[in-house]
Specification:
The protein is α/β, with parallel strands linked by helices and 280 residues long. The protein contains 9 helices and 8 strands.
Amino acid sequence: MRSGVFEVDGAGLYYEVRGTGPALLMISGAGGDAGYYDGVAEILSDAFMVISYDRRGNSRSSGRSPAPMELAVQAADARALIDGLAGGRALVFGNSGGAIIGLMLTALHPEVMAGLIAHEPPAANVLPDGAPGRGFFAELAALYEQGGAPAAGRRFAETTRGEGTYRWPADLWKRFLGNQDHLFGTEWPGFAGFRPDEAALKSVPFPVVLGAGAEDRGTYYARPSIEIARRIGVPWVEFPGIHMEFLRDPDRFAAAVRVLATQMHSRDGHVPELWQGTAQ
């Protein structure tokens, strides 16, 4: 693994690169930390050049600001990383808020995309009025206003299936706690207001796949993936496990990503050079 800091407009983004082969950029959700994907990235590095990063203002990246952050800025950061580290084109995987950023990146900067896997984007605005979870972002914003990050963070964990049943790496947990004010105070409005650009997503020339975990059926953060896939006419797939299965069981989650990513890369008949070696 090699790491560094990539300079973008107004921030330095901490990144990690593992392996060689087709580029796979992995965008994290709440907390914005590359460490969510350490296990999965290591497993997939035998077939892909896996790029993970701390999103702007999170963990080891700079660029924190008290002003609300627009999702277009997050998308521009991801595009800059693809240009600078992946030669201008990458398959993108995003989980949760990272899936929302992936959808925004796809709509705004399709020229750098080889494909998108959007895992459980909590795009509550695509749910029907009155649906459970439609008011999730407003509820947590109010909790943050009243009780700060601890109150909002506790409620966030309560709404996410599987949390509390496994242990986070200690360093990741420490960094996450330091990111909560940035999440709820700066990033939250952008995620709360997100509505997918359906026309743009329908028009892209590369594969887009939505998906959710088998243990998350019916949740406010799984249901939008089904609705978005229906609206833009793309495949929906079931992943193993929970919202953050990549932390609970990285081997299991990486196996699912490997199959899907390989199919997306080779769908036009192109087999990457890495996979063309002669068997010994």
